[in-house]
């Protein structure tokens, strides 16, 4: 069975983007970009909004070279888009469109895929997958900004309560933090009486 990784970038206050700010809040550094380029090959899963946004970046001619390289890498990656509104074929290379139930499709992909699965943005898709118990690892890259006034795409609204068994932490470029863990959906808050 293949592993499913939910992968988010976020501000300190839990936003996935902010109006008027550049990608990565303008704080990406060489150490982070190098690590990003070294990630293992996986099938990228996304919803329609993320697909539209990411594909839109590929048509921009004024991207900084690091972001343009990242978009070139995404064009080569195997991608699956879940949408009942988009119509195929999709123009981004190596992209498959699935219009049915995303949870059932991902459950089947975990059984049949020849490589790991990873999400790209797609807040509502990720929320559905974690509620269904399909997420094996949850990774968050936290950028040191608070975008309370301009923040968009609140990531954790509507999520169940989730505890993490941490497996990895790291700091990139002295400012960007990686947190990675195995998620456990909680049916109730932990009891104070069960603390060691």
Folded structure, characterized:
- With 196 residues, this protein is α/β, with parallel strands linked by helices.
- It is 26% helix and 31% strand.
- It has a single domain (4-188), classed as Dihydrofolate Reductase, subunit A (3-Layer(aba) Sandwich), CATH 3.40.430.10.
- It contains 5 helices and 10 strands; from the N terminus they run E-E-H-E-H-H-E-E-H-E-H-E-E-E-E.
Instruction: Write down the CATH topology.
Output: Dihydrofolate Reductase, subunit A
What strand order characterises the main sheet? 5-4-3-6-1-7-10-9
Low-confidence stretches: none
| CA-atom Rg in angstroms | 17 Å
Helix share bin: 25-40%
Largest sheet: 8 strands, mixed
CATH architecture annotation name: 3-Layer(aba) Sandwich
Element layout with pairings:
Elements: E1 4-11, E2 15-18, H1 30-37, E3 43-47, H2 48-58, H3 65-76, E4 79-82, E5 95-98, H4 102-112, E6 117-119, H5 123-131, E7 137-143, E8 151-154, E9 162-172, E10 176-185
Parallel strand pairs: 1-6, 1-7, 3-4, 3-6, 4-5
Antiparallel strand pairs: 2-8, 7-10, 9-10
Helix pairs in contact: 2-3
List keywords for this structure.
196 residues, Dihydrofolate Reductase, subunit A, eight-stranded mixed sheet, two-stranded antiparallel ribbon, 5 helices, 26% helix
Describe what is shown at a glance.
With 196 residues, this protein is α/β, with parallel strands linked by helices.
């Amino acid at each position: 069975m293949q592993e499913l990784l939910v992968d988010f970038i976020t501000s300190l206050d839990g936003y996935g983007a902010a109006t008027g700010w550049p990608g990565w809040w303008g704080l990406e550094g060489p150490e982070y970009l190098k690590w990003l380029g070294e990630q293992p090959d996986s099938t990228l899963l996304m919803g329609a909004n993320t697909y539209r946004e990411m594909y839109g970046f590929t048509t921009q001619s004024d991207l900084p070279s690091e972001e343009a390289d990242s978009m070139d890498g995404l064009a080569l990656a195997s991608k699956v888009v879940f949408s009942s509104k988009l119509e195929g074929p999709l123009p981004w290379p190596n992209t498959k469109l699935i219009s049915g139930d995303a949870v059932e499709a991902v459950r089947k992909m975990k059984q049949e895929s020849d490589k790991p699965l990873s999400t790209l943005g797609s807040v509502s898709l990720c929320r559905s997958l974690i509620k269904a118990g399909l997420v094996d690892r949850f990774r968050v890259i936290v950028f040191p900004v608070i975008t309370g006034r301009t923040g968009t795409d609140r990531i954790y609204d509507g999520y169940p309560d989730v505890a993490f068994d941490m497996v990895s932490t790291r700091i990139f470029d002295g400012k960007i933090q990686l947190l990675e863990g195995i998620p456990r959906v909680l049916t109730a808050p932990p009891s104070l009486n069960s603390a060691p």
